[in-house]
Design brief:
Length: 303
């Protein structure tokens, strides 16, 4: 028990306290989530994606192995959620919201922060690969799924072309493949924006938790949380030996797969007219419950 307490205090409590700042500010001074979401969507998120990929030191084989692992742990639970939604005959907005909350993992602000605090640089590098794939999924498939809640497929696909982080991923992959770097006058401000992304996302999470704490349809919340916090890491555990992940990749991959629903899912839900209250409830509950699943996982992984 003492070990678990130390693991929680060292690796998770700092993250939760940062999010609490946003909650307190929303309550005390009326901090709104939408401006922070807009800032993250259009500037901080793209900068973080670009800077992380361009400056990461990963081989193509490692990227492919961890990339496949990330895709499987994100897509398979989301497909299960889609099937369950059809069986339960959920309305379109709620069914789409359910899939979105299971598909989008908080591999950025939460996942990278946990891996940074818990493991070494080799694990962090592997975590950035998972994060890059999660970002690509978020701003392509995630946007399409969110759009389908209120639009047809053609409109949804056109919506992807208006997503800034997608262009950041594409540009970063080109730069990485060519060995290019931005000149210092540009790289430094991008780096500063990237450094700001994680704390701002955590503050955003806290503000969103405050503003959406008492509303929403709760029928499928436990289902979404169970798929994200239990089913996804269980699948990841089965995939580790199949894909031959080494120890740093195993540590990073299992932690990233066990992350709660991403904060950005609430931004997409609000942007595309989904059940934003339901989505935020899943974000809230999965985030609040995540220490109960992450703490023993981190202890088992030797954090």
């Amino acid at each position: 028990m003492t070990t678990l307490v130390h693991v929680f205090a060292d690796n998770l409590l700092p993250i939760l306290l940062t999010a609490a700042v946003g909650f307190v500010l929303a309550r005390s001074v009326g901090l709104e989530a939408r401006p922070l979401g807009t800032l993250t969507f259009n500037a901080l998120g793209p900068s973080l994606v670009f800077h992380t990929i361009v400056h990461s030191d990963v081989r193509a084989a490692d990227f492919a192995r961890m990339g496949g692992f990330a895709l499987a742990t994100l897509l398979v639970p989301a497909l299960a959620a889609a099937g369950i939604g059809r069986v339960l005959r959920l309305d379109r907005a709620l069914a789409t919201s359910l899939v979105l909350t299971v598909l989008l993992s908080n591999a950025g602000n939460y996942g990278l922060s946990v891996v940074t605090l818990a493991f070494d640089d080799a694990a962090f590098t592997q975590a950035t690969i998972f994060f890059a794939v999660a970002v690509a999924v978020t701003w392509t498939l995630g946007v399409v799924v969110a759009s389908l809640g209120t639009a047809d497929l053609a409109t949804a696909l056109r919506g992807v072309l208006r997503v800034p982080p997608l262009y950041a991923v594409s540009a970063a992959l080109v730069f990485k493949s060519q060995g290019w770097l931005l000149p210092p006058a540009l790289d430094r401000p991008v780096g500063l924006l990237a450094q700001a992304a994680i704390p701002v996302m955590l503050v955003l999470l806290g503000a969103q938790l405050y503003h959406n704490r008492d509303v929403g349809d709760s029928r499928c919340v436990p289902l979404a949380v169970g798929l994200r916090l239990v089913a996804a890491p269980a699948l990841a555990l089965a995939l580790v030996p199949l894909l031959g992940l080494g120890e740093p990749a195993r540590q990073a991959g299992l932690v990233q797969a066990a992350m709660p629903t991403a904060v950005v899912s609430t931004v997409l839900a609000e942007t595309y007219g989904l059940d934003a209250a339901f989505v935020t409830r899943v974000v809230v509950l999965s985030t609040v419950l995540s220490p109960l699943t992450l703490t023993p996982l981190l202890a088992w992984l030797g954090a």
